[in-house]
Amino acid sequence: MSQLKDLPQSAHPEAALAAMAAAVGAAHVLVDEDTRERYARSTAARPVRPLALVRPGDAGEVAQLVRIAAGARIAVYPISTGKNWGYGDACAVGAGQVILDLSRMNRIIHVDPELAYTVIEPGVTQRQLSDYLRQRGYRLWADCTGAGPDTSYIGNIMERGFGHSPYGNRLQHVAGMQVVLPGGELLETGFGHYAQSRTTHLFPYGVGPFLDGLFTQSNMGIVTRLGIWLMPQAECVNHFLCSVPAHADIGPVVDALRPLRLDGTLRSILHIGNDMRVLSGAGVFPRARVSEGARLPQALRSAMREQGGIGAWSVSGALYGTRAQVAAARAALRRALRGTAARPVFISERSLRAGALAARLLGNTNAGRRLRGKVALGESLFAMNRGVPDGRFLTGAYWRRRDGLPASFPAQADPARDGCGLLWVSPVLPLRGEDMLAVHALAEVSFERYGFDLFATFSMINERTLGGVLTIAYDKQDPDETARARACHDEVFGSMFEAGYIPYRVGNHAMARLDPARDTYWRTVGAIKAALDPAGILAPGRYQPDVARELG
Fold first, then answer.
1. Cys-Cys with 416: which of 41, 99, 520, 551 at CB 3.0–4.6 Å?
2. What is the separation, in whole angstroms, between the first and last Cα of the chain?
3. Which pairing describes strands 271-274 and 455-459: parallel, antiparallel, or unpaired?
4. What is the Cα–Cα distance from 435 to 440, expressed in whole angstroms?
């Protein structure tokens, strides 16, 4: 087992930083207090100050930096764009590490319009790739998440994140990685290590052991390039929404939708959100109406739900294909939901135009304002379904922020910079209504105990599981509320673990809790880490529970 005393600790960091400056240019090695403070900002209220920030420009420079770090016994922590909201942001697991900010490496190296893939670097953002495809007339869409336009594709893929489209299970649509190993060697995965290969970015497995998974949710190497498959533009896209009035009624709806996910009728990732998830996406906590506490009084919550025209749960998804295929999917969806409390409403480009016209005619009436809000949401969802990111879905991160939404929101939204408090617990559960209700009930006990409203989203990330995101939004300026938020997170994390609903990803503040039994899996991971990184210089503590425990 690794011990804290064995972690990289250089007696002469100045010499190592000077060597790094020689490798990447002095302008790209920053040690000033403002920079170190900026990279320590955390939505988790866990600021971790780095030793320095270094910004390499290509894979060769990354390899040089890693070799310098190994020789000097200095820990380095790679980030793509540093927007891992709620899971660690741009912070390392432990203090005093050198942040390798890969955002300068933002080249879209290749797009193949026939075979529908692109090769990108870590600094490529959702907005950048979307704009690139549209401006050059490629009839291709990239999957989007709701984390904002300025987040990194590779950063999200390294955490095995998911989006919205039929390509939303993102890691399944990756082929061919370029990786800098902790010793400074450059590794090409799949068929990529054969210079003559014609299918590096088309067939992910190559021949021999499949290594790609080692470099996701790990500290085994730094991914500096990968191929990601793109979705050919569909002839027809419809979005659908279902409002479910009563909490308990969502179980049968989930069970009715499962066969359509299994048989491929529903190809995209469906999202199921409770009323708080929807309300928090439309505004911030109404402090003027709630004198104290972080929970909405039930009467106010019900009134806000009625005013917004939403139920206890909302189901959201998209249908893709030819017009005939979408029509058949709509009919199948209606049939499946008969006998449940859900009635699907389908949104097309035509219906959005009609809604916008009706909203203008209704003017500034309550009905007009409500309709304008629904049209704006529909337009954002349509954009996301077609690979155009939208920052409005970050609204929920600002729910408890005292100053509300910034005047410029959603442009350049940055919850860490803006002082938002945000923690997530993300369990994976069987795609069954009873499991979803059980997870919600288990979480609600803790949320009520610590005085927070439970924001819950469950996404059909594949044909057999739901990925839960249980959100704790808190006022980071209130020390007591911050402490309660952390206690709530830890209790929910523990109760999910004990009930068998293990999280699919965790924040830096929870890495130490991943191996309570000291089991064979994590011992094996540790053995691979020791073989690849004997000096322990690459991101110590990241998905490395024994080291994370000692880092605190």
1. 41
2. 16
3. antiparallel
4. 9
